[in-house]
Amino acid sequence: MLKKLKRCMVLLLCLLPAPLMAWSAVGHKLVAHIAYDHLTPQAKIAVDRLTEEKAKFYPARSRFVYISTWADWSRDRGDSRFRLWHYIDLPLAAPGIKSKPPNPINAVYGINHCKVVLNNPKSSVDEQQTCLKLLVHVVGDIHQPLHTVNRFSKEHPRGDHGGNSHKIKSSIADNMHAYWDRGLGKFKPYQRRSKTTGLGIRQYAEEIQERYPLEHYTKLSAPLIQSSVVSGVHKQDKLSQPVIEWAREGRSLSASFIYQAPENASPSKIYRAKGILLMEERLALAGYRLAMILNTIYNKNTSVATIG
Fold first, then answer.
1. Which of 62, 132, 189, 266 has its CA 20 to 30 A from that of 115?
2. Is 169 exposed, middle or buried (0-12, 13-18, 19+ CB in 10 A)?
3. What are 145-163's pLDDT values in tens digits?
4. Residues contacting 164, CB < 8 A, separation 6+
5. What's the pLDDT tens digit per position in 242-253?
């Protein structure tokens, strides 16, 4: 009984909200739900097996969703091995302002490393479990645009660290990075602990998928999103482009939209409304791409186009 209680405590700790260095716990769970909805049967069997150790009393979907917050949970408890994997600081510099390149150990490196480990049949179970946890999390992180950029300007000659130094006036957050980590305030209702919180997050994930199905990424149905979608490419090409391109999408969106909200001012209602649409579009895309990676790994003879 005591062992079972300890297991429950560990998993419950994984559900605690993460500090403001990534999508909040809600955002990561949304990405995991969306991805799980698009896993092939073979991929589900594989990830279910990797998450069942010491947690068989939880449903498979719940275990997959729970591990989405592990990277933040472990980091906040002193595990610094993967702390640089949560972001990539692609420079965004004003004319005449010097910038610096990103650290070579970053989110792109982390995702590609996890893909190699999970693709390698000689990897130990422990290595596979760790990389699955990290992959589910970091794919979510890299789709938060401010996890892909470091803006250099006269006000921030050393960079603004993904909008952390871009101060705003809002009851949601006091800087732009935290504002987006919290889903522009959209995540707040889902952070309350109750018997229905988990069901609410899952329902929200389903609503996001209805608004942004896979077809959305070839139809260009949302003008705001067009800067992150290349016209005329096939669905498979769009989803499976190199990971560095995912990061460049985020930098492009940061330049064209996110940083349009001025510093030391309150983001307008119009900005927040458009931002929520963009945030949901990024979460959906993160989920689809995560499913694509896992399906490709665990279905060697299955086309990526079978997702969905």
1. 62
2. exposed
3. 999 999 999 999 999 999 9
4. 175, 176, 177, 178
5. 899 999 999 999
Residue 224 DSSP symbol: G
Q: In Å, what is the CA distance from 215 to each residue of 92, 224, 252? A: 31, 16, 22
Calpha distance 154→222 (Å, rounded): 33
62 phi, psi to nearest 5 deg: -60, -40
- Residues 176, 168 contacting (CB under 8 angstroms): yes
| pLDDT surpassing 60 at residue 308 | no
The pTM of the full predicted model, rounded to 2 decimals, is 0.85
Closest CA to 191 of 182, 206, 273: 182
> Left if phi > 0, otherwise alpha if psi is -120 to 50, otherwise beta: which for 92?
beta
Q: Which of 17, 12, 124, 118 is nearest to 57 (CA)?
A: 12
Place of tokens 């989110």: 107
| Euclidean distance between CA atoms 154 and 96, whole angstroms | 9
Write out pLDDT tens, residues 26-85. Answer: 999 999 999 999 999 999 999 999 999 766 678 999 999 999 999 999 999 999 999 999
176 vs 232, residue with greater confidence: 176
Q: How far apart are CA 236 and CA 172, in angstroms?
A: 37
The rounded Cα 284 to chain-centroid distance in angstroms is 10
